[in-house]
Design brief:
8 strands; 9 helices; 2 domains; two-stranded antiparallel ribbon; six-stranded mixed β-sheet; alpha+beta
Length: about 260
């Protein structure tokens, strides 16, 4: 986790993405000046200003692109082919293609990957914009990237789903969506506390549970099975005693975490 920021509900999801990206890139390059940085995001973050900043600051990007009639025309041949094959084979099919596009608000031509997909729910075209294959000048728009569009889409864009899983893990398992205070700063503090909890539990998962069957437990499972262990509290005149169950089903995991 690099940023834990609660945006106002009156602005779009990508409203402050440019500023956050700039701060992160500066911080990373202050330690590792030659590292290659790739920004991967869904189509909500495909904003001309953010794309231009990435191109001007040597940051590569792989970002989803909102579908529109122009893009769908570029993908028409592949879409028709997939739709026809689906009628014959009756199973999920997809085809990928590279092409270039220059939207009205863009000052330059950019590479786009088109994914023509057809399932039992119908046609489902997807588009991804990137500056990774090679810089595009007006004289280079017909040059083809070396990597096949399918491998690029599956290898560089689809792993975005794993990022979403980690975000959902914090939201759903550690109450990051509990922003019920009337003050924005109080809600931001709640989000930060949830983030600290996530970092601690993820640290247990990475460092203390690696190589075990519990290495892929979500953080709420770790919280409920290793942290929130049931005990009986017995209070006497002289002491408060916690009686732990000797037959805990996760004794081995608990012991391993403590030892590591």
């Amino acid at each position: 986790m690099l940023v834990s920021y609660l945006r106002p509900s009156s602005v779009g999801a990508a409203h402050h993405a440019g500023g956050v990206t700039k701060l992160l890139v500066e911080k990373i390059r202050s330690r590792w000046p030659n590292v290659r940085i790739i920004l991967r995001a869904d189509r909500g973050f495909c904003k001309p200003k953010l794309l231009r900043w990435c191109e001007n600051n040597d940051v590569k990007y792989v970002i989803g692109l909102q579908r529109n009639p122009v893009l769908e025309r570029e993908l028409k041949y592949d879409s028709d082919k997939v739709n026809a094959d689906f009628e014959t084979e009756n199973c999920k099919l997809c085809r990928f293609t590279w092409f270039t596009d220059k939207a009205r608000k863009w000052k330059r031509t950019r590479w786009v990957i088109g994914k023509a997909e057809h399932t039992d729910k119908g046609s489902n075209p997807r588009f991804v914009i990137t500056n990774l294959p090679q810089p595009i000048a007006d004289s280079q728009v017909n040059a083809s990237p070396a990597l096949s569009p399918g491998k690029f889409y599956d290898g560089l864009y689809c792993p975005r789903g794993e990022m979403e899983n980690r975000i959902k893990e914090q939201q759903m398992c550690l109450f990051a969506d509990r922003t019920s205070c009337t003050d924005c700063m109080a809600n931001q503090l709640r989000l930060l506390m949830s983030s600290f909890a996530y970092l601690l539990l993820d640290g247990i998962r990475r460092l203390a549970l690696s190589g075990t069957k519990a290495a892929r437990w979500p953080v709420d499972t770790i919280r409920l099975k290793l942290v929130k262990v049931a005990a009986r509290v017995v209070i006497s005149v002289r002491r408060v005693m916690f009686q732990l169950c000797s037959n805990c089903p996760y004794q081995a995991e608990f012991k391993q975490v403590m030892e590591r």
